[in-house]
């Protein structure tokens, strides 16, 4: 067989049913309002919308406040995040967006140029990632 080009494969699918369905759960990170509206037309959607915490996220946050991740001082993490420079903060926002879960509370206020995140709703791995990032950038 030569590399590239079109190849013809013979196959027999042997369909037993007239119609097959395979449902897949898809999670959209930071969906746009237009996408949310279209999704609502096709059926119910779960999770948070536009920074509004779901009941599940609220319960999870309460549990995490009682047991912060070992080795990470959440108050110091919050202080260190505020001390970061603008370029570093952009990286932090990107890290949060790329690693957040359905339980993570975020609010992006573009008009005010502010990004809000509840540190206690972040997954442990992201808390550790942010802590290590602050240690690297601020030296402890």
Rounded mean pLDDT score: 77
Q: Give the strand order of the largest sheet, numbering strands 1, 2, ... along the chain.
A: 1-2
- Give the strand tally: 2
Helix amount, in percent? 40-55%
Helical/strand content category: mainly alpha
How far do the termini sit from each other?
A: 58 Å
> Which stretches are low in confidence, meaning pLDDT under 50 for 5 or more residues running?
48-54, 61-67
Overall body shape? elongated
Strand content range: 5-15%
Oligomer class: single chain
Topology as H/E string?
A: HHHHEEH
Largest sheet: 2 strands, antiparallel
Number of helices: 5
Verbal overview:
This protein has 140 residues and is mainly alpha-helical. It has helices at 33-42, 55-66, 74-83, 86-99, 124-138; strands spanning 106-109, 114-117. The protein has a two-stranded antiparallel sheet with strand order 1-2. The longest helix has 15 residues, at 124-138.
């Amino acid at each position: 067989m030569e590399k590239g080009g079109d190849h013809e494969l013979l196959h027999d699918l042997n369909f037993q049913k007239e119609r097959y369905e395979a449902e897949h759960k898809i999670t959209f990170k930071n969906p746009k309002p237009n996408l949310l509206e279209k999704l609502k037309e096709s059926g119910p959607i779960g999770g948070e919308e536009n920074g509004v915490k779901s009941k599940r996220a609220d319960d999870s946050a309460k549990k995490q406040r009682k047991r912060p991740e070992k080795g990470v001082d959440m108050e110091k993490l919050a202080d260190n995040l505020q001390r970061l420079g603008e370029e570093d903060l952009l990286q932090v926002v990107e890290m949060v967006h790329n690693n957040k879960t359905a339980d993570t509370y975020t609010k992006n206020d573009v008009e005010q140029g502010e990004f809000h995140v509840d540190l206690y709703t972040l997954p442990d791995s992201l808390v550790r990632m942010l802590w290590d990032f602050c240690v690297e950038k601020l030296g402890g």
